[in-house]
Amino acid sequence: MADRPLKVLIAKPGLDGHDRGAKVLARGLRDEGFEVVYTGLRQTPEMVVAAALQEDVDVIGLSILSGAHMTLLPRVCALLREQGLDDVLVVAGGIIPDDDVMALGATGIARVFGPGTTIAEVADFLRANARRADRA
Amino acid sequence: MSDPATAARAGDRRALARLLTAVENRTPAAEAALRVLYPYAGRAHLVGITGAPGTGKSTLVAALIEEVRRGGRSVAVVAVDPTSPITGGAILGDRVRMQARATDPDVFIRSMASRGHAGGLAAASVTAAAVLDAVGFEVVFLETVGTGQSEVEVAAAADTTVVVEAPEMGDEIQAIKAGLLEVADLVVVNKGDRPGAQRAAAQLRAMLSAGVAPARPGRPAPKRPEVLITTATTGEGVAELLAATERHRARQLADGDDRTRLARAEAELMAALEHRLRARLRDPRRLAAGEAALRAIADHVLDPYTAADRLLATLAPE
Which of A22, B41, B60, B297 could be B134's S-S partner, Cβ–Cβ 3.0 to 4.6 Å? Predict the structure, then answer.
């Protein structure tokens, strides 16, 4: 079943007021052939990780605009490791200053996509880097 | 780590989640796990939730989760959303409404793309429900894609089928059409705070009981579903709905009604047969015969039934 679709969780941790970008990305990835689980606004890191675990996703995409990324994103990565989900590819998108991107990389965020990123870039990166979940 | 089935039964949620992926992808590992788990299934109350897109199925399931948890029982959900026939992608958005219980260890929610399966569920939904049943969840909700009039597969899969309607969904003629409403054990008019909800419920009650003939030998007795009103966003009427599903289940068990169990068994057996048959026809040794048959049918040299008979004749026991 090599052509099984990749399963992606798009999540918005924190207190962002809108999720336009996350929805655009979710829809775009759908059109790229991904199965996209969307969980909506105002998710705690614990909720994100519980959803990733239950859905057995290959990828988590975290969208964040609020400026709280240096708190929330490392917390998600730490919880993932705690739950043994360290083989899940984690990427981020939103408004994240360049200075923080390196630091986030060290906590487990594989890639940060800034404004202007195309859907195709994201899709190609995920296809190239996600584990396939059908190990068993 | 022990084998996935044993780990999942012991409460390992990660193992359970991975097992469900294997079930979805129909791997040999999933079949091995199912052999272990199947004898443990058959205890949960499987409740199907179906209805047109936008009637509030997911929000209602979220409210039902709350209600089941209030009673102290564990609950799992299999929520199906449609796969794009064009790209194979899908948006699985049912979880958005159910996040209030995201971190409750006695709640397990799994989204599933239909992957081209018609009928309102995914091909693996019934097996996934059996796995969740086998690992000990006491109530399992099976939420279909937003359905039209004839996607009634869930009725064979569930013990209790709830059809969700919303106000302004149609008149009395809609209520007596064949299809979805016929398989309902319970009908819910959701969005009960909207104008027209009471009238919609009254119309449904009137039409679902009008002209219903008494049971006659040799004829399937039409169901006479109870009609309830809920407002899923506030929880209004949801306790009554859950109680009604339990009454239905209790009646079923008291009557020794085996029809639902046998209907589910038939659906599972037919799905397994189809899967096995497809696998054997995909066997490299038979590909040429299969392609020749397709060509012959396309060219109208052979009719499809004769072609099927000839292909089946090549399937000697293995």
Answer: B41
Pairing verdict, β A59-64 and B186-189: unpaired
Query: What is the tens place of the pLDDT at every residue in B221-264?
Result: 778 899 999 999 999 999 999 999 999 999 999 988 788 889 88
In the numeric block, which tokens belong to residue B190? Answer: 């959701």
Nearest-CB residue to A32 (from B19, B25, B87): B87
Q: Cβ of B92 under 8 Å from any chain A Cβ?
A: yes
Confidence check on the interface: ipTM exceeds 0.85, yes or no: yes
Least CB–CB distance from A40: residue in B89, B99, B111: B99
CA B243 to chain centre: 20
From chain B, the residues in CB contact with A35 under 8 A are 83, 89-90, 92, 113
CA distance A1 to A18: 37
What domain range includes position B2? Answer: 1-38
Looking at the structure, tell me whether residues B232 and B159 fall in a common domain: yes
Q: Cα(B295)–Cα(B291) distance, rounded to whole angstroms? A: 6
What is the C-alpha R_g of chain B?
21
Q: Which residues of B touch A43 (CB under 8 A)?
A: 99, 102
A82 touches B: beta carbon within 8 Å: no
Whether B171 and B225 map to the same domain: the answer is: yes
**Helix, coil or strand: residue A13:** strand
Q: Beta strand A89-94 with B107-113: parallel, antiparallel or unpaired?
A: unpaired
Pick from B130, B181, B120, B135: nearest CA to B159: B130
Domains of chain A, first to last: 7-129 (3.40.50.280)
Token representation of residue B270? 């037919």
- B103 vs A85: CB contact, 8 Å cut-off? no
Chain B residue nearest residue A24, CA to CA: B91
Phi (first) and psi of residue B265, to 5 degrees: -60, -40
How far B220 CA lies from chain A's nearest CA (Å)? Answer: 40
